[in-house]
């Protein structure tokens, strides 16, 4: 039985409740719902309900557009309180290593990007004999990234599948190519999330908007913000400027190594930074449960990009804000309905996050668990329970958030110490 409390959720929203009922009745199902409305959980709950934990065979495949979404979906499965095992597969790492993981874990559900899933299928790295459910999450994003052919081939491989589910934040005629007949749940016209987002335009007197961005962030204090820029080089430039101004932030773009992106995202989600500077990579497919502000440093390419960026805030019935910084040579797009925001702030110093993040050079493969890390930090590091925040344990390393004010003393206490008798690197993440 899935335990919503372990996922940090008190109750399902109306869309998720409807999806739960529809999933149980329809063989082919399409859910259209805005970004940030909780589609991933909407299909995962009934999917997990349909899987048999005492059967070690792969019973379901989930296609996602990015490695980040694959990993986060698997994390939700692990947090759900069920005995279902899940594995993420994606490009950028050796397929042979994933093959060994699949053989060792024997998952009931595999979540992966189209190309890597197809590669494992064609090589026979897992049996498809018992797969009864196939899901495409963020179908529209998969199309944007050019995965149409790979998805079609996966469908062709899995002719015995009885349940096919497709989820998308936009309607698309391509849907009928994959599901000629289907039950349709359409929540796109409701747009309750957009109604919970305050939209503001911030006028920059200079073409270079960095100083305006600094003033805006100072005015938002300790609130969490994603700053969207248009180019990878812009991520580096904006992040460098803000760090020089004393802001503690994360930065992410598609040109970074996966491990570096992973570290930056953890720091932001764990509250060790309160600002994330990113390209549209962060617009979708990332599990960022609570975000106060979306800041469009560079104008979005079109209305759809604007909607997806804004979809990072006001999730789960919360409220949020969207700020569009407009330079002297730019015009506010017609699709933006916003009032002008007057910059003001009472502090000249950026607010520091409450948490800091540590890197620990051991993980699951070393038999290290979240409980081991928490106990080590409290017993050896001298921290109280409330001083230990989010912990993520990966295969070969781990991340943990701790009280920022106690970082220095904790690192001194941990110097040279062993966790579960294992000597390892423990250092602050910057």
The rounded distance between the terminal residues' Cα atoms is 39 Å
Assigned CATH superfamily of the largest domain: P-loop containing nucleotide triphosphate hydrolases
Query: Order of strands in the sheet with the most strands?
Result: 3-4-2-5-6-1-7
Stretches with pLDDT under 50, minimum 5 residues = none
What's the overall average pLDDT, rounded?
Answer: 91
Beta-strand content estimate: 15-25%
Enter the CATH topology name of the largest domain.
Rossmann fold
The SS-based structural class is: alpha/beta
List keywords for this structure.
15 helices; seven-stranded parallel sheet; single chain; Rossmann fold; alpha/beta; 33% helix; Alpha-Beta Plaits; 3 domains; 430 residues
Commentary on this structure:
The chain is α/β, with parallel strands linked by helices and 430 residues long. It folds into 3 domains: 4-186, Rossmann fold, CATH 3.40.50; 194-340, P-loop containing nucleotide triphosphate hydrolases (Rossmann fold), CATH 3.40.50.300; 355-428, RRM (RNA recognition motif) domain (Alpha-Beta Plaits, 2-Layer Sandwich). The protein is 33% helix and 20% strand. It contains 15 helices and 20 strands. The chain has helices at 14-25, 39-50, 67-79, 95-105, 114-123, 139-144, 148-157, 175-178, 192-195, 210-220, 232-244, 258-269, 303-310, 370-379, 407-414, and strands spanning 28-32, 60-63, 86-89, 109-112, 133-136, 163-168, 183-186, 197-203, 225-228, 249-252, 275-278, 293-296, 320-326, 339-340, 355-360, 388-393, 398-403, 418-419, 422-423, 426-428. The protein has a 7-stranded parallel sheet, sandwiched between helices. A 7-stranded parallel sheet has the order 10-11-9-12-13-8-14. β12 (293-296), α13 and β13 form a beta-alpha-beta unit. α1 (14-25) packs parallel to α2 and α5 (114-123) runs parallel beside α7 (148-157). The model has no long low-confidence stretch (mean pLDDT 91).
């Amino acid at each position: 039985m899935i335990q919503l409390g372990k996922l940090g959720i008190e109750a399902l929203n109306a869309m998720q409740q409807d999806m739960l009922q529809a999933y149980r009745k329809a063989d082919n199902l399409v859910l259209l719902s805005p970004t940030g409305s909780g589609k991933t959980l909407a299909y995962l709950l009934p999917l997990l309900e349909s899987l048999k934990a005492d059967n070690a065979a792969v019973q379901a495949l989930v296609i996602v557009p990015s490695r980040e979404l694959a990993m986060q979906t698997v994390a939700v499965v692990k947090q759900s309180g069920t005995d279902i095992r899940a594995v993420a597969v994606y490009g950028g790492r050796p397929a042979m290593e994933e093959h060994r993981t699949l053989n060792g874990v024997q998952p009931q559900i595999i979540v992966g990007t189209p190309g890597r899933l197809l590669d494992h299928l064609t090589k026979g790295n897992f049996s498809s004999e018992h797969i009864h459910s196939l899901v495409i999450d963020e179908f529209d994003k998969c199309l944007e990234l050019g995965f149409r052919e790979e998805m079609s081939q996966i469908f062709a491989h899995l002719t015995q599948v009885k349940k096919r589910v497709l989820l998308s934040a936009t309607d698309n005629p391509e849907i009928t190519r994959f599901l000629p007949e289907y039950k349709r749940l359409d929540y796109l016209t409701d747009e309750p999330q957009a109604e919970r987002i305050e939209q503001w335009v911030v006028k920059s007197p200079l073409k270079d908007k960095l100083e305006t961005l600094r003033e805006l962030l100072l005015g938002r204090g300790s609130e969490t913000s994603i700053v969207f820029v248009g180019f990878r080089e812009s991520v580096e430039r904006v992040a460098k400027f803000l760090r020089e101004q004393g802001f503690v932030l994360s930065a992410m773009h598609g040109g970074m190594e996966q491990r570096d992106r992973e570290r930056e995202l953890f720091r932001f989600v764990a509250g060790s930074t309160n600002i994330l500077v990113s390209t549209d990579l962060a617009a979708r497919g990332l599990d960022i449960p609570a975000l106060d502000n979306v800041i469009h440093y560079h104008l979005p390419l079109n209305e759809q990009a604007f909607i997806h960026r804004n979809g990072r805030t006001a999730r789960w019935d919360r409220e949020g804000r969207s700020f569009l910084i407009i330079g002297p040579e730019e015009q506010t797009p017609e699709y933006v309905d916003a009032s002008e925001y007057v910059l003001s702030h009472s502090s000249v110093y950026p607010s520091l996050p409450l948490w800091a993040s540590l890197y620990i050079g051991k993980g699951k493969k070393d038999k290290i668990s979240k409980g081991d890390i928490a106990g080590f930090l409290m017993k050896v590091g001298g921290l109280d329970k409330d001083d230990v925040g989010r912990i993520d344990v990966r295969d070969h390393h781990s991340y943990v958030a701790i009280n920022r004010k106690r970082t220095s003393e904790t690192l001194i206490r941990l110097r040279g110490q062993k966790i579960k008798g294992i000597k390892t690197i423990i250092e602050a993440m910057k």
